[in-house]
Design goal:
Distance between the termini: 31 Å
Strand order of the largest sheet: 3-4-5-6-8-9-11
Order of helices and strands: EEEEHEEEEEEE
Largest sheet: 7 strands, antiparallel
Number of strands: 11
Radius of gyration: 21 Å
């Protein structure tokens, strides 16, 4: 199999540039372990923590990174009432990234993520789930050689709060047999 990425941009003088890079092989190898800390009950939520380790088996082919990324996660869920069909989810993660090799981009090494979700159990085997997810920005500064300020050709790319990733998603969950 062959993987590839292509990026096109605009330089300060108005010229365009292209990065066209081909890679090959498998993606990164991800090892993940999860432990349920509490079952929940009464007013207490069920709490799970996890550790995720990403080994650079695929990125090396793209020459993007040569190190290991590590994430620590915490997830909580709570049914909203003993007989309620609604379950609230809340969680977050902290990730340490190895040094990235991306021309012109200064990647942040530590990033956070937060998510909030609601599940409506329509019956024993089908639910509707909605999630809100936000991650801290990926880049400290998008272009090292581009001046900031009103004369910048990319004035909105280097905001102090910019580049946050937000996702709102919804869908149906099918569980034809309990525990699947």
């Amino acid at each position: 199999p062959e993987d590839r990425y292509r990026a096109t941009g605009l330089e300060v003088g108005g010229n365009t540039f292209n990065y066209d890079h081909r890679g090959y092989g498998f993606s990164d190898l991800i090892l993940e372990g999860r432990v349920q800390l509490t079952q929940g009950g009464g007013y207490a939520p069920a709490i799970t923590t996890g550790l995720l380790v990403r080994l650079p088996t695929g990125r090396r082919k793209f020459d993007l990174s040569d190190g290991v990324d590590v994430s620590l996660t915490v997830d909580m869920s709570k049914r909203l009432g003993a007989r309620s069909p609604f379950v609230l989810y809340l969680g977050g993660a902290l990730t340490y990234y190895s040094h990235a090799h991306l021309e012109g981009l200064t990647q942040l090494r530590i990033r956070g993520q937060f998510h909030l979700g609601l599940e409506w159990e329509i019956n024993d085997w089908i639910s509707f789930v909605a999630h809100f997810w936000i991650e801290s920005r990926r880049q400290r500064k998008l272009f090292d050689d581009v001046p900031d300020g009103p004369t910048s050709p990319f004035p909105d790319s280097n905001l102090d709060f910019g580049n946050w990733i937000t996702l709102i998603a919804g869908g149906f969950k099918f569980e034809p047999k309990e525990g699947w």
